[in-house]
Amino acid sequence: VVATVKEIKRRHSIEVIAGNVATKEGARDLVEAGADGGKSGIGPGSIGLLRTGHDWDIQVLSMSAVVAATTVVVYRIALRVLRLDPATRRRRWAAGVAFAFAFTTPAWSTASRSMWEHGPSMLCLSIALLCALRAEGGEPGWSGLGLALGAAYAMRPTDALAIVVFGVWVLRCHRRHALRVILGGLPPAAILLVVD
Asked: Which of 105, 106, 135, 168 has the fewest CB atoms within 10 Å, measured from its CB?
């Protein structure tokens, strides 16, 4: 890992976060190799993040905003799918679902702690789901579905699995809207091709 960090820093002018390290010597070696941050310990969680950069507060603030936005989208999804009357009861349950999402999943504990791809990925996938629900209900949303899925892939390529699932659903159940979904996904795909 140390050799890789040195090589990346030699070739590129970018910030590098490396790890996992289990000892203070390992952390020191990463910093000396040029790593701007790292992950200590074994296992998941933000508790092990090492802070060496000057922008840590900005990262936490911006990613917390992304997680908060995702929580709002999850609330909107819950409002759509919960079939409870009266509306005040549905809003309370939707708020409970959003609260559970924010604080009982890795959303707050991991995605809001640093500039990981997890936060933007969750936001894009939740927007995709909301757009799919809107579109299925006859409201505008097909192009938004494509845009959100394209952005999700650009943020985190492993979101390709979600794209496949949504794609199969569109092709099987809403084939006439497939072109709108594809066209919606073209802008983030084009940006990814140009930048990457």
From this structure: 168
